Structures are given as C-alpha cells and as structure tokens.
Amino acid sequence: MKKLIIASMLMFATMAFADEKKLTVKIDGMTCPSCAASVESQFEKLDAVDSVDISLTKGTAIVTLKEGKNLKEDDVKNAVKDAGFKVIEVREARTELVSKSD
Q: How far, in Å, CA of 78 to CA of 1, rounded?
C-alpha cells in the first residue's frame, strides 16, 4: 500500500509541472482596441500560436505557443507587419506552471 501511495504521489507531481513557451512582443503604434484586434487576428492565423494576450497600455502582445511548437522571429515580425504595425522587440520567456489540486 505504501508503494502505491508513493507511486501515485510521483505521478501527480509529474503532471503538475508543465513548460509553457511564451514570447513577449513589443509593438509600435497600437493605440486602440481595433489595433489590438488586428494584431491578435494575425497571430491567431499562425499554426504555432495557442493564444495571444494584448496589452494596449504596455504596447505588447504575449504570444503563447502550442506545446512543442516554435515560431521564427521573422514570422512574428510579418504577423505584426500584416496588421499594420512594427515590432520593436521580441523576447522569449519560459514559464513554469504549477497546477494546484485540492
């Protein structure tokens, strides 16, 4: 019984951690909700993109990639350009997510 409990604990501990790949894209010129919608729409056309969170106040798009997918910087720049804007900076950040189960 003790081995079963330990094995279960290890299984849940492994499932609780996941790597999520995100890009922070600083964008020049986004000033209104329509601007944000245009940028978001262009990113959502890309196969590697899972979700996009736009901040008008910061002038950024946080692009979350699908598991195991990557996105080239040129693809990021082209998506923003197609929306009518210019990329200032692209940064990659890894975020470790911990799911809590009660």
A: 57
Written as six digits, the tokens of 19 are 């790597």
What backbone phi and psi angles, to 5 degrees, belong to 19? -90, 135
**What spatial distance separates the first Cα and last Cα of the chain, rounded to whole Å?**
22
CA distance 79 to 39: 7
How far is Cα 90 from Cα 77, in angstroms, rounded to an integer? 9
Q: What is the 3-state secondary structure (H, E, C) of the chain?
A: CHHHHHHHHHHHHHHHEEEEEEEEEEEECCCCHHHHHHHHHHHHCCCCEEEEEEECCCCEEEEEECCCCCCCHHHHHHHHHHCCCEEEEEEEEEEEEECCCC
pLDDT at position 92: 86
pTM of the model: 0.73
